[in-house]
Amino acid sequence: HSPDQYRVFGNPIEHSRSPDIHHIFANKSQQSINYQKQLVEIDGFSNAIAKFIHQGGKGANITVPFKEQALTLADELTERATLAGAVNTLTFKNGKIFGDNTDGEGLVQDLITNQVILNESRVLLLGAGGAARGVLLPLLAQNPRSIVIANRTVSKADKICQHFADNRISASSYIDLAKQDFDLIINATSASLSGDLPPIPTSIISQNVVCYDMVYGKDETPFLKWAKEHGAMKVVDGLGMLVGQAAVSFEVWRGVTPEVQPVIDKLRASLK
Ligand code: NDP
Fold first, then answer.
1. In CATH, what number is assigned to the domain containing residue 256?
2. I need a surface site. Which of 46, 53, 179, 247 has the fewest CB within 10 A?
3. Residue 151 is part of which domain span?
């Protein structure tokens, strides 16, 4: 019988690596799937999903700018999707739409792969957009001592704190970070995409700090370059998170845990 159909929906979508990643997972785990990317017009998201379900689609990944709309389409949501306020994984089963968010688990898995200790750690999360909010619940599950959210627009960080109502999470301006110590700094801003550096005080970088950037690319991001220059213990980019979130989606759909490292290595080589 024909392979199960999956898709990633977004705008833009041309550069998505998700079809490659999922086909490698499927080949290695002897699963029969067909995974395509689909460009969706800005006002055409719910129609595109309805059509795909009608055609027998089994599941979908959702990317920019439709993750919030995907949340409203779902009949049932996981707790991590509800708290993220966004859905990146839809499953179509028994006439229902199930919504999940695997970004945070993808990040946590990648941190663990990179031997970053989260238990009792003091985490600084830069940015208060969808990506920052989306990773908080899985990060909290790893038992950090504290998570400080720093954002240019501090009110957005405050709002996330209120939403989570967890006494380990607090908000800060960039300037106030200078007096604080951290073990792990996660850049969840989009600054790297435009070649910028968030306005972080240099004093918070030391040889005990690990720096993570959700962005990845051929060249080291401005944040990771800067962190290295100021003596950070270790720097890690977001390629592993990308493959990690895909692996968790694959597991949600297929019940099989794929191996991520060969896929990370392959994508890394293709970036060069
Ligand atoms: P949003 O647009 O929702 O949020 C952007 C955030 O970045 C805001 O907090 C904004 O601050 C901040 N920001 C933007 N430019 C600057 C700057 N120059 N200096 C300081 N802060 C800045 O984006 P998302 O949260 O959806 O995504 C953030 C990043 O995470 C993106 O680059 C995305 O590619 C990456 N990502 C990577 C994933 C992966 O798998 N590797 C998964 C998901 C996301 P303010 O509120 O003050 O404007």
1. 3.40.50.10860
2. 179
3. 104-237
CA of 149 to the centre of ligand 1 (A): 13
| Residue 10 CB–ligand 1 contact under 6 Å | no
Count up the domains in the chain and report the number.
2
Q: Do 77 and 15 sit in the same domain of this protein?
A: yes
Measured CA to CA, the distance from residue 262 to residue 153 in angstroms comes to 39
CA of residue 226 to ligand 1 center, whole Å: 18
Model confidence at 179, pLDDT cuts 50, 70, 90, reads confident
The reply, when asked if residue 17 is annotated as ligand binding, is: yes
Ligand 1, atom 16: closest residue by C-alpha: 191
135 shares its domain with 46: no
CB 68 within 8 A of CB 81: no
Q: How many CA atoms lie within 13 A of 5 on its CB side?
A: 13
**Could you tell me if 121 and 14 lie in one domain?**
no
Query: How large is the average pLDDT for residues 101-124?
Result: 98
Strands 122-126 and 169-172: unpaired
> ipTM strictly over 0.95?
yes
Domain at 109, CATH number: 3.40.50.720
State pLDDT tens for residues 211-255: 999 999 999 999 999 999 999 999 999 999 999 999 999 999 999
Q: H helices within 75-221, ranges in order?
A: 79-84, 103-113, 130-140, 154-164
266 tagged catalytic: no
Do 89 and 116 fall within a single domain? no
Domain check: are 254 and 140 in the same one? no
Position 236 scores a pLDDT of: 98
* pLDDT band per the 50, 70, 90 thresholds, residue 1: confident
- 172 Cβ inside 6 Å of ligand 1: no
**Maximum Cα–Cα distance across the chain:** 62
Assess whether the C-beta atom of 85 lies below 6 angstroms from ligand 1.
Answer: no
CA-nearest residue, atom 18 of ligand 1: 191
